[in-house]
């Protein structure tokens, strides 16, 4: 009896129960704030959920946001497995979109869609990777911290895009700093168009074929991290760089590879936005998806399945939150951001706050049957 | 019994008719990313529609967008909910208004700062270059050093249009004047960075500037503060900001977005909504400069005469102010 040790939590409790409890806690605190501004929290929750799933159009928007979060979440996760914190997803996505835009602007009238698509995918990946290459090199070979360099590269990306859009790419004789709209054959088909080919009528939403590519990326990341030699080396470097070095792994090369793939994944946000939704290069289409990807990855425990679920949650928050601001005048958009912040706080920063209590609970539940056995 | 039932039924029908009539006019406004309290452009619209609300007692639907995709979503939702007219703010909402206006041909739309060529859209644009020209004249005349400054917000064509008009006005009043220009930044945060605005202004003062014009949204607050601290002149923008620092606010260049927004709701409520172009320049009173009790001591009779003359000449077509956005150039 006395030698009994505290067992670790079962896996399902760690990956499912704790995040769920965290979300409920966050919603509870958010509910208190809703009460404080004099609204009914249950009505707000209902609007949030219905606004995210209640009708065809809302579901499309939710999944459209989800697509972006999957890309940026995966990007953060791949780097995280090598113990690198890539917070430059914002800039990489922005430049990835630039790559897609340049390819499509150059070739949209010339090549058919089936040739443009792989080119656009490659351009997004290449530009995203290129944008992270300098910080990656500085991290691997010069020891500059990746957090600092990637966030600085975000700003360089903003300025570069602004210069390009205002002075170079902007279509002549128009107000907005935007490129011209791509020809029709360079549009990623919208989901309602794809479903239309099969005779299914749905509402028009920004959801487009990029969602399929996001699923492909999830599978790719899973295979890469857990089923390839490179993935093994990457995780080894992440766990213990000295040990990896001792085992003959060139950790500097691994840093470059991990960040390169991370940048490419972030770049696909640019594909979803530029090729899928807006059909032109424009300012600020990234809108914080890169930073939200950090929360998504943390919440998803850096695993593709978890990232898909966390992306869905943030998709719900984005779309349902907009719906809240629309339906209830007392809800400003800042309030919606506050709810998102609470979820990030509880699920990211305070991930393990409840863990000791849950462990204690499991411990109690486990030790209960023992006295009963004795009696028998 | 029957009679009572009948009366109740009739009352219900009448009530339904009455509520349908009251529901006919449901205005809506979609603010852009700056938010309705940006101390500038969106807030001007907010003031206009609030004035309408308090005068007419009609509530309006509103939404503040937070990302690119929400613009179209919000405008479409307004139209779906039967809002009419739907007012969009800022050039960035142009494509969204165009798309939704095609989908809802029976709904009226209006957009400020952009031209959307649809039969059910009113496009309201301002000749900011004309208003900027006038404050440029005042700046050059008030300057003792012969150097005037411009601090822009985000570096976009619209702000260059302000800068270009300002420079032309300054050169018009004094051909030898030197115009020093700075943009605060290239991201939307440049609209709300008073610290950087103050830094840029101090830098311009160090180079000899003694009158500075800010077209920078919330960033302008820092510009005006820096001017007040240094005892130099600053010029406000969009709304009348003379009251912020009486004594150092030379004037404000007015862009009456509040009036434009109010007029859209007002004319719609009277059933007099007119689609098409609505260009508001000096002649239409859509732009101008502010003269009130806070700055009347700063504007000499000579300055007032010169600026009135310039205004009359622009309206009469004797002075043509180069519009940066017509050809992306500022060669006057």
What does this structure look like?
- The complex is a heterodimer of chains A (about 375) and B (about 325).
- Chain A has a domain of about 250 residues.
- Chain A is mainly α.
- Chain A contains 16 helices and no strands.
- The longest helix of chain A has 30 residues.
- The C terminus of chain A is likely disordered.
- Chain A is about 75% helix and about 0% strand.
- The termini of chain B are far apart.
- Chain B is about 45% helix and about 20% strand.
- Chain B has a six-stranded parallel β-sheet with strand order 2-1-3-4-5-11, sandwiched between helices.
- Chain B folds into two domains: about 150 residues, Response regulator (Rossmann fold); about 170 residues, Rossmann fold (3-Layer(aba) Sandwich), CATH 3.40.50.2300.
- Chain B is globular, with a radius of gyration of 23 Å.
- In chain B, helix 2 runs parallel beside helix 9, helix 5 packs across helix 6 and helix 5 runs antiparallel to helix 10.
- Chain B has about 325 residues and is an alpha/beta fold.
- The chains are: A mainly alpha (about 375), B alpha/beta (about 325).
Concise account of the structure shown:
Chain B: Belongs to the BMP lipoprotein family. The complex is a heterodimer of chains A (376) and B (332). With 376 residues, chain A is an all-alpha fold.
Which band does the percent of strand residues of chain A land in? under 5%
By CATH, the superfamily of the largest domain in chain B comes out as Response regulator
- The Rg value of chain A, from CA coordinates, equals 23 Å
How many separate domains of chain B?
A: 2
Q: What is the C-level CATH assignment of the largest domain in chain B? A: Alpha Beta
Percent range of helical residues of chain B:
40-55%
Number of strands of chain A: 0
Q: Count every helix of chain B, treating DSSP H or I runs of 4 or more residues as helices.
A: 11
Q: Provide the CATH topology of the largest domain in chain B.
A: Rossmann fold
- pLDDT under 50 segments of chain B (min length 5)? 7-22
